[in-house]
Design brief:
The complex is a heterodimer of chains A (about 270) and B (about 180). Chain A contains eleven helices and seven strands. By secondary structure, chain A is of the alpha+beta class. In chain A, α1 packs across α6 and α6 crosses α9. Chain A is flat and about 75 Å long. In chain B, a hairpin with a 2-residue loop joins β4 and β5. Chain B contains five helices and eight strands, in the order βαββββαβαβαβα. By secondary structure, chain B is α/β, with parallel strands linked by helices. The chains are: A alpha+beta (about 270), B alpha/beta (about 180). At the A-B interface, β1, α1 and α11 of A face β1, β4, α2, α3 and α4 of B.
């Protein structure tokens, strides 16, 4: 069964966590406006990855890692064009050009760099297919995901901070009565000016984001900036004022546990025969 | 006549109305309205106040099932609906991971309103894109003790099973209370 979704709702950290905890085998394909990244996992560990926009061949990986020169790259490209990455790797080791560890470290760094790119993706569709193995001719590695998850979650901390500062986008904004800064003297981006023009206790932040076509992260960043600059303050729209009701459980205050049990058993019998 | 209630909650379009309709002996008293927001236009109507279903247990006891509105802007109703409930079911759409975070938030909100037993119904398990139960548990960060049940809300047997599992949880809690006394 494939797992499909969008990173705007299910983050890369959550995905890696899922793959790691469930020790999954399979391929994760992520796409976003012309970008396509494929990551393969074995037993919940990173095994192989490729970025459609890059030349993912071993020759190129070694060149960018400065393990081979541009001249060597040219020669290998001409002479080993028909060789797979695995075959070329073996050839380089046997010819004493490179050690096995060097090649493994190099491809591992490359695969991880592709995965790390995803930490900046706030949206994009993903699809995880179980039991799809990396291509046979590619060199695979086995990298624990825990550190990647930690790194990814550190980046998420910015998001969490913004969430803490602005707990709900249903809140509205109003200009502070005595601003410490003169708005006219502020250097605002065009996006920020657009948001400023909608600041009104009647407009929720969500509505402003919708009207100005800003993502949740963007509007939070902008509003956070305004709050820090002391230009605006958060207010609760009147429609959000909740009525306060004291929670109470019928069974807790009306009957003894034995009576409750008898009542629940009655309901069980009724539903079974329903 | 004694009445008891259970609350059926979950994100927008998770299948709460279908869930109640499958077991209610009356036509569900639904308060659906045409959807105004473009973002939510994946179905034509949605519940704006509550759904209301009924199962008569015997001459003296009636079980009411209340479905909460799925859209966040009606969440002021949740606290009112949760008052006095026996327990609650969180219905999630297993094929829409974009709603999992919201499901988690709804679950925590209801737990805060009333610490009653609850189960999670992984609805739409018949769809090709639905996530497997084990994956859903991780995605929703559900404690292993919480029952996460496969469900197809339009199938009465699945709904009955979900309600029964919730009732067993309630029984377990009562047993625990008796033991502690």
């Amino acid at each position: 069964m494939a797992l499909k979704g969008n990173l705007s709702n299910f983050t890369i950290t959550q995905l890696l966590n899922l793959i790691n905890l469930a020790k999954k085998n399979g391929s994760l394909i992520l796409e976003r406006s012309g970008d396509k990244i494929e990551i393969y996992f074995k037993n919940g560990k990173l095994a192989y990855s490729k970025d459609q926009k890059r030349d993912n061949s071993l020759i190129n990986i070694l060149f960018y890692s400065k393990l081979i020169t541009s001249n060597q790259k040219k020669i290998f490209t001409q002479n080993a064009a028909s060789m797979t990455d695995k075959e070329l790797g073996l050839l380089l080791i046997n010819a004493d050009y490179l050690h096995q560890e060097e090649i493994i470290t190099c491809v591992q760094t490359y695969y991880m760099s592709i995965l790390k790119q995803l930490f900046t993706w706030n949206d994009g569709v993903f699809r995880f297919d179980t039991d799809i193995l990396p291509p046979n001719d590619k060199i695979t590695v086995s990298v624990n995901l825990e550190n990647m998850i930690l790194e990814s979650s550190r980046r998420m901390q910015e998001w969490e901070k913004l969430n803490d500062e602005i707990p709900s986008l249903e809140m509205a904004l109003k200009f502070v009565d005595r601003p410490t800064t003169n708005i006219r003297s502020l250097k605002l981006s065009s996006k920020e000016w657009r948001v400023i023009s909608y600041v009104n206790p009647k407009n929720s932040i969500q509505q402003i984001a919708h009207t100005t076509h800003l993502s949740e992260l963007e509007i939070r960043r902008i509003v956070y900036g305004f709050l820090q600059a002391g230009i605006v303050e958060l207010i609760r729209p009147t429609s959000m004022k909740h009525l306060s009701y004291e929670s109470s459980r019928i069974r807790a205050h009306q009957t003894s546990p034995e009576q409750q049990k008898s009542l629940i058993n009655k309901i069980i019998d009724r539903i079974r025969s329903h | 006549m004694q009445t008891v209630k259970m609350v059926i909650t979950g994100p927008f379009d998770a299948g709460k109305t279908a869930f109640i309709s499958s077991v209610s002996e009356i036509d569900v008293v639904s308060t659906e309205r045409k959807i105004s927001s473009d973002a939510e236009k994946i179905k034509e109507t949605t519940t704006v106040a509550m759904d209301f279903g009924r199962i008569t247990i015997d001459d003296e006891l009636i079980l009411y099932l209340f479905g909460t509105p799925g859209q966040k802007r009606f969440d002021f109703m949740w606290e009112i609906l949760s008052e006095g409930m026996l327990g609650f079911v969180v219905v999630i759409d297993s094929s829409r991971p974009e709603t999992f975070r919201e499901a988690r938030s709804i679950l925590e909100t209801f737990r805060a309103y009333a610490p009653t037993p609850y189960v999670v119904a992984a609805n739409k398990q018949d769809l090709q894109d639905s996530w497997a139960i084990d994956d859903l548990r991780i995605a929703l960060r559900l404690d292993p003790k919480i029952k996460l049940l496969p469900c197809i809300a339009i199938d009465r047997e699945f709904v009955k099973n979900t309600l029964l599992e919730l009732l067993y949880c309630i029984l377990d809690e009562i047993d625990l209370e008796i033991k502690e006394k």
